[in-house]
What we know:
Blueprint: H1 2-17, E1 53-69, E2 72-88, E3 97-108, E4 127-132, E5 138-143, H2 146-156, E6 176-185, E7 189-207, E8 210-229, E9 232-249
Antiparallel strand pairs: 1-2, 2-3, 3-4, 4-5, 6-7, 7-8, 8-9
Amino acid sequence: MSRALLAVAILTAACAGHTTPTTTTPTSVNPPAPPPPPPPARGNVDVIRLGPSALRYVMHQVIHIDQEFQGMRQPLDFGLRAFFAVTITGPADTSGYPTTITIDSIVADSGTTAPMGINLGAAKALSFVGRLTPKGEFRNQTASDSLIAQSLSPVVGSFKNFFPRLPPNGLTLGAAWTDTVTENDRAAGSVTVTSHNRSHATAWEDRNGARALRVDVISDFTIKGSGQQVGQPFEVAGTGVRSGTDFVAADGRY
């Protein structure tokens, strides 16, 4: 009895002391995953192009003319304020953004009169419809009344050069560029005005609560042509300098 128990105990001890070897299958250890690539660089948010807007403007012009008629020199100075609304809608087509300019009124500065007997009251509700390119060219404009538009062209033109001309790749701080604009004025004959413009985007400024880029412009222009006025033939030729400052908001509003 005791031997049987002893045998069982020895067997149990033998079983307990014997360890069956196990086969361990090595597992491959993956190297740590590489860090994710950096996000793509953001585009330059400070590149500006003209775009849709609905705004009202006041355009103030102060003009000095030295004219010569039948051997007599006569200076002419006058100032005008034009009040008008501009609506630019999107999306743009291949010709640009659909754009409408509507004149509210044009008034002469105190102490001056409109030149050549121009009827400024006729400007009320006169509109121009055309296409505005992102570079600032107002193309293919059509007037609501062609006769009134022609009579007012010496003082407001067709707003062809109202918008600032921007570089082809957009406006950025520090950009400097030149462009040439030629316009034919046929209100009283055939007169060609050619402007050579030098522009420089100089600084960001706050304008009426909006962040805007300041653009300083200097233009050298020449005028040459001929025609008839009050039944009398005339020739015109001359040169001049214009200077101005434009502000274009970061969202493309002028």
